[in-house]
Automatic annotation (TrEMBL):
Protein name: Amidohydrolase family protein
CDD domains cross-referenced by the UniProt entry: Met_dep_hydrolase_A
Matches recorded under InterPro entries: Amidohydro-rel, Metal-dep_hydrolase_composite, Metal_Hydrolase, Metallo-dep_Hydrolase, OTAase-like
UniProt keyword list: Hydrolase, Signal
Signal peptide residue numbers: 1-20
Lineage: Bacteria, Pseudomonadati, Pseudomonadota, Alphaproteobacteria, Caulobacterales
Matches recorded under SUPFAM superfamilies: Composite domain of metallo-dependent hydrolases (SSF51338), Metallo-dependent hydrolases (SSF51556)
An MF annotation (GO) of this entry: hydrolase activity, acting on carbon-nitrogen (but not peptide) bonds
Pfam families referenced in this protein's UniProt entry, alphabetically: Amidohydro_1
Length: 441
C-alpha cells in the first residue's frame, strides 16, 4: 500500500506538471510577441523629470515596451494601433497599501467569522479587477489571510485572474491582543482565528517573521502601534517593545525582506525607525524627530490620507457602523492626517502613494491624489509618489513606475491634463497592463 501511495503521488505530480505546461496562459498575459502601437498625444513617460512629450508612438511587443517613436506612426499592417492621440498617457499607477480581500461595511465583523480563506480570495478577485480598471497596475497588499492573498497574487501572475501586480505581505506581524490580532469576539473564537504571525518577545517575533517568509511573504508588514479599526480600546501608541522591533527588522532584512510598519503614535513611529525599519504606513502623530529619522534612514512615508478621510466621515456621520472603540479612534486620528502629510512633505520626507483601500472602497484609490495636493504636494509630486516613488519604495523600479524600452507595458491614460487638475486621474479612460488592454473607453 505504501508503494502504491508513493506511485499515485508521483503520477498526480506528473499530471499536474503536464497540465501546467499545456494550459493556456489565460487572461492578462500576452502568450505571443504580438505588436501593439499606442499613439499618445501627450506622454509623461518618466514622471521623475516631469517632461510631457507630444505626439509619440509606443511600440509594444508582447508584454514589453520596445521603442518610443516620434509622431503617430502606428502601422496597422504590423500590429494593432491604439489611438490615444487626444489623451494624456502615463505609466500604470502604484498603490503601496491596499487590502484586496475585503472592504469595510456594516457586516465586516460578521464576515471575519463567516468567510473562509477561499471566499476571501474570490472577493479579492473582484476587488483586484476593480483596482486594475481604476488604473492601478501594481499594488502592495498589506494584511490579509496568507492563503487568500498569496493564491490571488499567484493567480494574477499566471493570468488566471485580471488584476494588478500584487506584492503581498500576508498576515501582519503583531503582538498578542494588538492591532493585527483578533479582537472583540469570544475568547475561544479569537484563539481559533489568531494567526501564526502573532508574537510576544523578541525570539517569538523572529519566529513570526520567518514563518511569514516561509509562507510566501514578499514584504513584512507589522503593526507597531494600535490601530483605528481594531475593536479594542488600546489607544494608538506603541505596542511592540524596542527589542521586539529590532528583532523583527533584523530577521526580515537577513531574509531579504523589507519591513513596513502600520504606525500612528509617535512613540511607535520613532521606535520603529530607530530599529532600522524601511517605511511607515499612516504616520499620524509623527514629529520633528520622526522627520529627522525618516531622512537619516532613507525611510518612506505612506500617508494613506484617503483612509483617514473615510474613517472620520463614517464615525461622524448618521450611518456610523463602527464600534464605540473604533469610533473614538477614528474621530481622534482621521482629522489629523492631512496636517501630518503636510509637515512631512515640508520636512523633505520621501512620500509613496498608498490608500489603505479596503478601509475605503476599492476602485476609489485615485481620490488620494487630491488629498495629497491638499496636503501641499504639487500634482506632479503626487503622480511621482504613485509611479517612480512607489516603485523605488517597493524596490521594483525595473518593473514599474515609468514607460521606457525594456519595461513592462503598464500604461494608463485620461482625457484631461492631471498636472493641471489631478482629479483627472479619478476618470480613467485607458488601462494596459503587461501589454494587454483591459480598458478602452
Amino acid at each position: 500500500m505504501k508503494r502504491f501511495g508513493i506511485a499515485l503521488v508521483a503520477l498526480m505530480a506528473s499530471a499536474v506538471g503536464a497540465e501546467a505546461q499545456q494550459s493556456p496562459t489565460g487572461v492578462g498575459v500576452s502568450s505571443e510577441p504580438t505588436t501593439t502601437f499606442v499613439e499618445a498625444g501627450r506622454l509623461l513617460a518618466d514622471p521623475s523629470n516631469g517632461v510631457v512629450q507630444r505626439d509619440k508612438t509606443l511600440v509594444i511587443r508582447g508584454n514589453q515596451v520596445v521603442e518610443v517613436r516620434d509622431g503617430f506612426v502606428g502601422d496597422p499592417s504590423q500590429g494593432k494601433v491604439v489611438n490615444l492621440r487626444e489623451a494624456f498617457v502615463l505609466p500604470g499607477l502604484i498603490d503601496s497599501h491596499v487590502h484586496l480581500t475585503g472592504q469595510q461595511n456594516p457586516n465586516s465583523r460578521l464576515e471575519e467569522v463567516t468567510l473562509s480563506d477561499a471566499d476571501q480570495a474570490m472577493v479579492g478577485a473582484r476587488y483586484a479587477r476593480r483596482t486594475l480598471m481604476a488604473g492601478f497596475t501594481t499594488v502592495a497588499d498589506l494584511g490579509a489571510s496568507n492563503e487568500a492573498i498569496f493564491a490571488l497574487r499567484n493567480a494574477v501572475k499566471t493570468g488566471d485572474v485580471p488584476g494588478p501586480r500584487i506584492i503581498a505581505s500576508g498576515s501582519s506581524v503583531s503582538i498578542h491582543g494588538g492591532h493585527g490580532d483578533v479582537n472583540g469576539y469570544r475568547d475561544d473564537v479569537m484563539h481559533l482565528l489568531s494567526s501564526e504571525s502573532i508574537c510576544s518577545g523578541a525570539e517569538d517575533c523572529m519566529r513570526a517573521v520567518r514563518t511569514q517568509v516561509r509562507a510566501g511573504a514578499d514584504i513584512i508588514k507589522i503593526t507597531a502601534t494600535g490601530g483605528v479599526l481594531s475593536n479594542t480600546a488600546a489607544g494608538l501608541g506603541q505596542q511592540f517593545s524596542d527589542p521586539e522591533l529590532t528583532a523583527i527588522v533584523d530577521s526580515a532584512h537577513r531574509m531579504g525582506r523589507q519591513v513596513t510598519a502600520h504606525a500612528h503614535g509617535v512613540d511607535g513611529i520613532n521606535a520603529f525607525l530607530r530599529a532600522g525599519g524601511d517605511s511607515i504606513e499612516h504616520g499620524t502623530y509623527l514629529d520633528d524627530q520622526s522627520i529627522r529619522l525618516f531622512k537619516s534612514n532613507g525611510a518612506w512615508l505612506i500617508p494613506t490620507l484617503l483612509a483617514g478621510d473615510f474613517v472620520a466621515r463614517i464615525a461622524s456621520g448618521p450611518d456610523n457602523f463602527f464600534t464605540p472603540a473604533q469610533t473614538a479612534k477614528a474621530l481622534e486620528a482621521g482629522p489629523k492626517m492631512l496636517d501630518m502629510a503636510r509637515r512631512a512633505h515640508e520636512g523633505g520626507v520621501k512620500i509613496a502613494f498608498g490608500t489603505d483601500s479596503g478601509v475605503s472602497a476599492h476602485g476609489d484609490n485615485a481620490q488620494e491624489f487630491a488629498l495629497l495636493v491638499r496636503a501641499g504636494l504639487s500634482p506632479l509630486e503626487a503622480i511621482q509618489a504613485a509611479t517612480v516613488g512607489a516603485a523605488e519604495h517597493l524596490r521594483i523600479s525595473n518593473e514599474a513606475g515609468k514607460i521606457a524600452p525594456g519595461m513592462p507595458a503598464d500604461i494608463v491614460a485620461v482625457s484631461g491634463d492631471p498636472l493641471s487638475d489631478v482629479t483627472e486621474l479619478e476618470r480613467m479612460r485607458f488601462v494596459m497592463k503587461s501589454g494587454v488592454v483591459y480598458r478602452a473607453d
